[in-house]
Amino acid sequence: MATQGQVITCKAAVAWEPNKPLVIEDVQVAPPQAGEVRVKVLYTALCHTDAYTWSGKDPEGLFPCVLGHEAAGIVESVGEGVTEVQPGDHVIPCYQAECRECKFCKSGKTNLCGKVRAATGVGVMMNDRKSRFSINGKPIYHFMGTSTFSQYTVVHDVSVAKIDPVAPLEKVCLLGCGVPTGLGAVWNTAKVEPGSIVAVFGLGTVGLAVAEGAKAAGASRIIGIDIDSKKFDRAKNFGVTEFINPKEHEQPIQQVIVDLTDGGVDYSFECIGNVSVMRSALECCHKGWGTSVIVGVAASGQEISTRPFQLVTGRVWKGTAFGGFKSRSQVPSLVDKYLKKEIKVDEYITHNLTLADINKAFDLMHDGDCLRVVLDMFV
Ligand SMILES: NC(=O)c1ccc[n+]([C@@H]2O[C@H](COP(=O)([O-])OP(=O)(O)OC[C@H]3O[C@@H](n4cnc5c(N)ncnc54)[C@H](O)[C@@H]3O)[C@@H](O)[C@H]2O)c1
Ligand SMILES: N[C@@H](CCC(=O)N[C@@H](CSCO)C(=O)NCC(=O)O)C(=O)O
Ligand SMILES: [Zn+2]
Ligand SMILES: [Zn+2]
């Protein structure tokens, strides 16, 4: 039955309140308006940012909402004026939009886009400042402009990347967030050079992707730091050459790293979201040139600090969103790289579940063995 132009009723995991189990509901998804695309989401993974917003610590977290931002699917229908995708196209929703027209997009200095960010930050679509999700008339907020924990979602046309249809959607859904973020933090934000010494704080999906990116960039040493020593074995397969567990040292971890590296690392990456680790990550950098990139997302109210002398003496503090990749332009190339076996994706998937099991999937994220859980949305 043709669904174009109709309201679709489908299953979605609704976060009614912070920290309360998500509920699988029958949700009404309105047709896409001008400049919008309705996507049938076939697979979605969970990212720690979903857990962060669900926890209630995200100042932009609004409830009730449909979370989810790491997914792949097929375009079901498009609204007026949408030219770059059409029904049947295979796509990855992109929480970081790319309109190619705004001040940010035209600057050539950033992958951030200003076109729809004000609307996505308050859980609505830009056209009419309303949600396309509802349950019996009650609106349910969007999340990050993607809301992929629903069998159908509506996104802005600037927030969807068309990809090669041969790519397995159950794998490349990961290219919607964590893996590109880690790779891009190294390649685009830090621009790690061959021979560099790199420190990666946090060996989850994002940290491992940093290690993978650093190995590809020719780093000579990749030091992984995690409070869970079990992480090292797996991390070796992603390029980590040495491991430090801060719990096994009396000295501050930055001092341990400075001593091990003749004055500090060339690049460090914080992939946890812990502001005190962010300080260590900056302070383990080499005087004069060491650069630290903040990747982890810290909760509302958290602030970073260091002695300004750390910056006066040449260390550089940076941050990255989606690894600096321009989403619509570059996600398709990442998919191609995966198809050519130039980047890993399958190796980050440790669990496969269904939408009905989404709360179990959130629980699994606390398990040390878990990297990404991929949900099959239609089983
Ligand atoms: N900037 C972006 O665009 C972006 C994109 C994706 C994810 N993120 C953020 O990146 C962070 C990492 O995401 P992930 O999915 O890899 O998370 P994860 O929870 O899988 O990994 C975090 C790792 O850090 C380790 N850890 C925790 N506390 C530690 C400490 N004090 N010292 C050392 N290690 C510690 C954990 O054992 C775990 O291995 C999250 O904050 C997430 O929200 C940011
Ligand atoms: N609402 C959050 C923002 C958290 C944040 O920084 N998000 C990252 C992506 S994390 C993906 O897993 C990001 O891209 N930020 C840039 C942007 O949101 O435009 C908060 O306020 O803490
Ligand atoms: Zn994410
Ligand atoms: Zn833009």
UniProtKB/TrEMBL annotation:
<comment type="subunit">
    <text>Homodimer.</text>
</comment>
<keyword id="KW-0560">Oxidoreductase</keyword>
<keyword id="KW-0862">Zinc</keyword>
<dbReference type="InterPro" id="IPR011032">
    <property type="entry name" value="GroES-like_sf"/>
</dbReference>
<feature type="domain" description="Alcohol dehydrogenase-like N-terminal">
    <location>
        <begin position="34"/>
        <end position="163"/>
    </location>
</feature>
<keyword id="KW-0520">NAD</keyword>
<keyword id="KW-0963">Cytoplasm</keyword>
<feature type="domain" description="Alcohol dehydrogenase-like C-terminal">
    <location>
        <begin position="206"/>
        <end position="335"/>
    </location>
</feature>
<protein>
    <recommendedName>
        <fullName>S-(hydroxymethyl)glutathione dehydrogenase</fullName>
        <ecNumber>1.1.1.284</ecNumber>
    </recommendedName>
</protein>
<comment type="similarity">
    <text>Belongs to the zinc-containing alcohol dehydrogenase family. Class-III subfamily.</text>
</comment>
<dbReference type="InterPro" id="IPR014183">
    <property type="entry name" value="ADH_3"/>
</dbReference>
<dbReference type="InterPro" id="IPR013149">
    <property type="entry name" value="ADH-like_C"/>
</dbReference>
<dbReference type="InterPro" id="IPR002328">
    <property type="entry name" value="ADH_Zn_CS"/>
</dbReference>
<dbReference type="Pfam" id="PF00107">
    <property type="entry name" value="ADH_zinc_N"/>
</dbReference>
<dbReference type="InterPro" id="IPR013154">
    <property type="entry name" value="ADH-like_N"/>
</dbReference>
<dbReference type="InterPro" id="IPR036291">
    <property type="entry name" value="NAD(P)-bd_dom_sf"/>
</dbReference>
<keyword id="KW-0479">Metal-binding</keyword>
<dbReference type="Pfam" id="PF08240">
    <property type="entry name" value="ADH_N"/>
</dbReference>
